[in-house]
Structure formats: structure tokens, C-alpha cells
Amino acid sequence: MSQPLSEKTISIIEATAPAVAGHIDEIVPCMYQRLLTDPEIRALFNMSHQHGNSPQHKALASALVAYATHIRNPEVLGTAIERIAQKHAGLQILPEHYPHVGDALLGAVAEVLGDAITPEILAAWGEAYWFLADILIGREEQIYTSSEHAAGGWRGWRRFRVAAKTPETDEIISFLLEPVDGAAVQAHRPGQYLSFRFQPAEGEEYRRNYSISSAPNGQNYRITIKREPEGKISNWLHDSVEPGAEFDVAPPAGEFFLDPQGKSEIVLLSGGVGLTPMVSMLESFGGKELPMLYVHATRDPRHHAMRERPLELASESHVFYETADESDLSAPNTHAGRVNPEWLVQISDPKIADYFICGPTGFMDAMITGLKAANVPDNRIHYEFFGPAAAELG
Known about the structure:
A 6-stranded antiparallel sheet has the order 4-3-6-1-2-5. Strands 10-9-8-7-11-12 form a 6-stranded parallel sheet, with helices on both faces.
């Protein structure tokens, strides 16, 4: 358990936070430059996020500023911290990784701010870093232990084999995964993801998260992956990975999931390949007494993956195509254009509904903003963020 920060440390963080925030766009790249010199640590990061306008850099910058801003009351960041802990657990971040990050961060702060950072100030930032790190380490150990003792669960990496590879569209493919040992697998919560350790070539290692797109069955998992133009791993999976291929998989993780207990109406809202956790939720609870409204948005019918199964399982479903011919719009509840949040609250009951959202950042921002404007409480707006978990502190 982390010891509370001293009043002296809190006062120093509050006094120096504006200076750190003012130079955060220099500090974060400097930190990553230091951190990624270690091959073992570099393998933990998606290197496609390490460019000049990196979302990962922006996410960490937001996280640092938010943490410093709430240094007296970090409890308000509880939901965000849980998301980070779940991401870390999926990627198998361990206590021994934290000193590397702390050294890189403090070194970057000292390098960028120079003489303005005294030993006393640097020590205070170090204490604040380890306070948060200890919270994350403790929560991550709880997650590891829970997975280890769950039926069909495991700790660390487990070897899985591709049992089937199914094209969904020209750019989206589903992979059915079975454990090599033939034993049972942990039942995931519908909406959670799996984390992978891929080794496409000798001496290479990459870690990625992908949502599970099937209901829990105790035997296998399905993931559904979109080819990204610059995505090294998504292209490798599409082009080179065939049935029989094996790789390491961590237990299911993630705090974005559907628990029907105490819910009266569910609205599932997805954009593009963001449909993957929604399919898992529908396969788990669709067609039952709980009303489930499903709304999906995509570019056009050619890019609409897995369209039939959700239509069968949802109480009511709607599809929005940005580009479509008149013939494409002849099917019931098929619309042209983009989802309007005002329309969404008209066809659902914002007084009782829980809204689950997953898709591109712009899509999610528009939907979340619109639902909040319709006075939907924050605790009934649930979403999965595609990107670095640290962005959740922003």
C-alpha cells in the first residue's frame, strides 16, 4: 500500500506543475527517447505510435498533467487508473518495468527544465511517480492473481493456435484461437480484450491488444482485426498468419464489458471495426429478455463486417452508411450519413438506458458529447478507447 504523499511533496508538485505542463510536449518525447533505448522495454510499446505527432505521447502528456492537477485527490482518477491497470495487465507489465519508466521520466524532466529543477523538486516528482506506480502495481497483481485462479485461467503467457481464419470484408479478418494445451479457457466478460506477444521474425517482439468478438464458451476465443495501412502487425496477421500458427496470449482483461445485472435497456453503438466487443455482447445476451438496441456506422456496405449475426440477436438494429447507393438503403432501418446523437436518444430511453460505445476517436467523441448534452449520466456512458490507455487520464 502506498504511503500518502507528504504535504511538502504535494506543495512542490502544485508549485512546479505549471512549468512541467508548459514543457510537456518536450518532456514526453525526451522520456520515450530514453526509455526505448532498452530493447526489453521497447517490446512493450507499439512502435507505430512513436512518431512526431504520436497519440501515445499525447496520452502520456495528458496523464502527467492530469495527475499533477489532482495530486491532492487522485481518487477522482480512479476509473482512468483502472483502465491503465487493465491495459498493463493485458500487456504483462511487471513491477520490474516501473523503475525504467521512472528513471526515463525524471531524466527527461531534468534535461528539459535544466537548472529550474533542483534536487528537491526532482525528488518530489520521484515520490509522486512512485506513489502512482505502487497503486498500479498493487492493482495489476490483483488482476494477475484473479486470472490465475479463475476456471480455465492462467497467469502470464499461454500458447494459442489459430484454428480458423475467416475473411469478414476485404480489410477485416476473424481468427479463431484455441489453446495448444487443449485445456479450458477463462470465460471473458463480453467486451474485454486479449493481449498478444507476436514474434513475426527472429529477434522481433510486438505486443498488441484485440477485442474478443465472440461470447465466452470455455473452449476458444475469436478476434476480428482490421488491416491498417501502416500497421506492421495487422498486415502480418492478414498476409502471413494461417491456421496452425501459434503465439502467446495473456488472459482476458479490460474494464469495458457488459454486465446485465440491474440494467433495463442496453444501447450498443459502434463505428467501423469497433463492432467487435458489441458482437461479443450480443452473442452473450442478445435474444433474451434484456432489450438491446444496436446501432452501427461504417463507410459503405462493402466495409460492413459481421452484419448478419447482430441483426439476428438485437431487439432492434440500425445501420448507417456514409456512402451508399439507393439500393443499399432498401433494407429496413438502413440509413445514409452519420449517426446523430439527438436521433439516438429519441429511439432509446435516456432515463434508463446504458450506452456502450466503441469506434474511432472522432466518432466516440461526437457520441459521448451528444449523450451528455441529452443529460445521460456519466455512469451510464461506457466506452472502449482505441489507443494508449494513458489517454484516459486526460
